[in-house]
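step=encode ok
step=design start
structure_in=
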């Protein structure tokens, strides 16, 4: 497995006392574009997209706390508020506003919130399946008491504290696991995601870079009605992308699109699951280029 040539520079910044990692693909004279990855992922998953867009933008790729080469929290707590703060800090410290953002899943959720909080700081927004759980799932959770949700979170965190990171004897076996999670991945992309998504352990085995505590979603967040009110504050042109084989619920079909006042464009892809930017790469990049350039 060989790394991509002519890759980005590696940089760090501080946010809430954490040392967080970000990649810079150069061309500082061009307008800034942030590519933000999803949960249990890493910044180098955007390499193909970055290489297609680097001649038109200064491409910046943050790695979320607890992911990639960013530090893990000492208490294993990963709240949406902290994720949004980290993104706000990077944009503030590096003076990137106004910035264009393309983001996936958890990164999309973070970016949508940031775009609503600081509408004048975002020129254009592309979010791949970034609205979070479906209305049906939200309704199910709403049937639980606050105590039930908190107790479930405690039990989940306790279980994760006893869970050891999975160890793979070789990069090939780790890549096989990656391919098994997404049947649309090419062998080359599975190898690439694996190469940059693991650390080698002292015994020579490999483990994924993300903190297992990221799997424990905090028991409290903004109420859904308040979150949808926030979506209404987004001003910039917005593109929402979905895969028709994904678990994610399309807002055109579930009604959540009504919360947006910026009249977002929604595009769905056949033969694509949750990772549309991998599953339909050429078509996805063509769509994004037409939208953000």
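sequence_out=
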């Amino acid at each position: 497995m060989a790394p991509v040539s002519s890759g980005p520079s590696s940089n760090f910044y501080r946010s809430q006392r954490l040392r967080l990692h970000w990649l810079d693909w150069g061309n500082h004279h061009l307008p800034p574009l942030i590519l933000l990855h999803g949960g249990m992922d890493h910044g180098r998953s955007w390499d193909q997209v970055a290489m297609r867009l680097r001649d038109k933008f200064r491409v910046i790729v943050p790695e979320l706390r607890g992911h990639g080469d960013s530090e893990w929290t000492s208490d294993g707590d990963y709240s949406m508020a902290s994720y949004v703060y980290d993104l706000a800090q990077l944009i503030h410290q590096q003076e990137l506003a106004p910035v264009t953002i393309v983001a996936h899943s958890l990164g999309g959720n973070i970016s949508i919130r940031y775009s609503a909080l600081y509408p004048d700081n975002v020129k254009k927004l592309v979010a791949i399946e970034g609205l979070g759980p479906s209305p049906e799932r939200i309704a199910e959770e709403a049937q639980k008491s606050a105590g039930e949700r908190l107790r479930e979170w405690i039990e989940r965190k306790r279980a994760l504290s006893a869970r050891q990171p999975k160890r793979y004897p070789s990069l090939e076996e780790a890549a096989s696991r990656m391919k098994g999670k997404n049947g649309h991945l090419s062998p080359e992309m599975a190898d690439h995601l694996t190469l940059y998504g693991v650390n080698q352990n002292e015994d020579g085995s490999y483990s994924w870079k993300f903190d297992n505590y990221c799997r424990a979603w905090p028991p409290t967040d903004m109420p859904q009605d308040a979150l949808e009110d926030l979506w209404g504050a987004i001003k910039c042109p917005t593109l929402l992308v979905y895969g028709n084989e994904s678990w994610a619920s399309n807002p055109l079909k579930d009604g959540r699109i009504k919360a947006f006042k910026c009249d977002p464009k929604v595009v769905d892809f056949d033969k694509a699951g949750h990772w549309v930017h991998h599953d339909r790469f050429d078509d996805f990049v063509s769509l994004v280029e037409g939208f953000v350039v």
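step=design ok
step=annotate ok -> Confidence is low (pLDDT under 50) at residues 1-5.
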